[in-house]
Design goal:
Strand order of the largest sheet: 1-2-4-3
Number of strands: 4
Number of domains: 1
Distance between the termini: 16 Å
Oligomer: single chain
Strand content: 25-35%
CATH topology: Heat Shock Protein 90
CATH class: Alpha Beta
Radius of gyration: 13 Å
CATH superfamily: Histidine kinase-like ATPase, C-terminal domain
Structural class: alpha+beta
Shape: globular
């Protein structure tokens, strides 16, 4: 995976995380991108206390596609509470490797 793929995957992940905030909360998302070496971190925060949870999908129209895309593209991802309230949903993408499998 080269830099163009990292840019594509980073854009895809950022779009999915921001879309989730818009669809599932009434809050304005804040996005933070950080590139260090061969790792890109995408973090989106909102004021909702509900953690992001990856759901099993029963079909193509079932909810949960956005986080499934994030999980598939990222090396690791998660949802963490913010000390000021709400949460941050983050994903780390790496050049050359998607997962630790």
């Amino acid at each position: 995976m080269g830099l163009p793929t990292l840019v594509y995957d980073g854009t895809l992940v950022a779009t999915e995380l921001v879309t989730n905030v818009i669809q599932h909360t009434r809050f304005c998302p804040e996005i933070h991108l950080e590139l260090r070496g061969d790792m890109l971190t995408v973090a989106v925060s909102d004021d909702s206390p509900r953690p992001a949870v990856l759901q099993d999908r029963s079909g193509l129209r079932a909810p949960g596609l956005g986080l499934r895309i994030v999980a598939d593209a990222a090396r690791v991802w998660g949802s963490s509470p913010r000390w000021s309230g709400g949460k941050i949903v983050w994903a780390v993408l790496a050049l050359g490797k998607h997962h630790d499998s």
